[in-house]
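User: tokens in, sequence out, please.
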């Protein structure tokens, strides 16, 4: 397809690989303990990898030490976007107003120095799962249901492959 009318020569979406997944996941200590189970469920799916997460309000005693949001963001490997859409759609359908699922198109960049980045003209698709705060007992059970749902999704994907 001729995309010249858009001012681009080819598909501007960054394609992530297994090497990218290994790079992003090389330091597991960067993950908040309170959301580790959800992050691990995402990362167990071969074509997904987390790139950002915060436990936010999940642990009442620690909430002041974290951002006010509870979320996990992830990228997709080898353009398996349909699987990400299925996961986010199934989560939004099952958990209704307890969760917000979205895809953000963000500019990609190259790091040229310790404190310098330069846009490279590509776009990264950031998939996001954000939990809304619920009463403590309901939050705990809802969080576990979300983790279980993602694990079942991952098991189904592995079985199909």
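Assistant: Sequence out:
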């Amino acid at each position: 397809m001729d995309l010249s009318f858009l001012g681009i020569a080819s598909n501007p979406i960054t394609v992530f690989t297994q090497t990218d997944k290994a790079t992003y996941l090389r330091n597991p200590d960067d993950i908040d303990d309170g959301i580790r189970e959800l992050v691990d469920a995402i990362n167990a799916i071969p074509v997904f990898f987390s790139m950002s997460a915060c436990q936010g309000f999940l642990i009442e005693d620690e909430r002041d030490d974290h951002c006010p949001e509870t979320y996990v963001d992830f990228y997709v490997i080898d353009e398996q976007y349909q699987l990400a859409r299925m996961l986010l759609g199934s989560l939004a359908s099952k958990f209704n107003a307890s969760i917000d699922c979205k895809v953000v198109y963000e500019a990609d960049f190259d790091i040229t120095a310790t404190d310098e980045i330069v846009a490279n003209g590509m776009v990264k698709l950031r998939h996001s799962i954000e939990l809304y705060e619920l009463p403590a007992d309901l939050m705990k059970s809802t969080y576990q249901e979300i983790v279980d749902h993602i694990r079942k999704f991952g098991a189904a994907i592995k079985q199909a492959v």
